[in-house]
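Q: Focus on the chain.
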Amino acid sequence: MIKQYPHVETERDGSVLIIRLDNAGAKNALTREMRYSLRDIVREIEDDRSVRAVYLTAKGDAFCAGGDLNMLINAHQPWEVHRRFRHANRLFPPLMTLDRPVVCGVKGYAVGGGMGLALCADVIIAAESAQFMSGFYRLGVVPDCMALFTLPRLVGLARARNFLLTNGTWSAKEAADLGVAAKVVPDADLDAEGLALAQKLASGPAEIMGLSKLIMLKSFEKSIDDMMLYEDLGQSLAMSGAEFNEGLDAVSNRRKPDHAAAAAADPTNDGLPDLSKPVSSQQDK
């Protein structure tokens, strides 16, 4: 069942939520409507434990052209920009720290803030047509949408500086060589490959992966002692959960684990739908 939002649509495929940017006529630029829709969708995912992974992609021949030009022309006074970034703070960090795996499929241009949106995902699958473009200094703005956070961590400070200062562009292959993209696939195969990876992650211990994400994001700013403490607390929580119990039993009995079913049957997951039922019946409730 497809659910429509302003400039975005979502669709469930089992325990994966597919998010498609849906403003192809504007190259999926980050309009106000799109940003508000994405914020609301992330909030819904946070409250829906039946979503075990996310596949983020876009309609049309471009992933995202970055900032909406009409907005930049008509709303660039200090208070207007401040309010916009106060709102962005409720979208980009929550997407990056979402406690479920997020896969992003990029086809065509991912420019400026559009590239920043893609980099908030855990894994990027790039179509052969993908182009990761800085573009910030061409316009005369500070890199945003978390790019100043993600890029140095992904490629190192020197490469990030060079890429941003020269208004650089990475092809799909270059992005993969740098580790920004995990894989390059033909354009026609992008959604199948991206969704297959999201399904694979959803079938694993998705909640434990989400917990690990939160700890990993601290690794560039915390001491060794702090990281050991986070690992201690994280592992204590992980080993008390249904996903660990299922994994341990599966390894002990030499069978394939079913983490999703174990999570669905866990009585501590208040309100989590039974994943053995058809998705349509869950959504209609």
Observations:
- The chain has two domains: 2-202, 205-283.
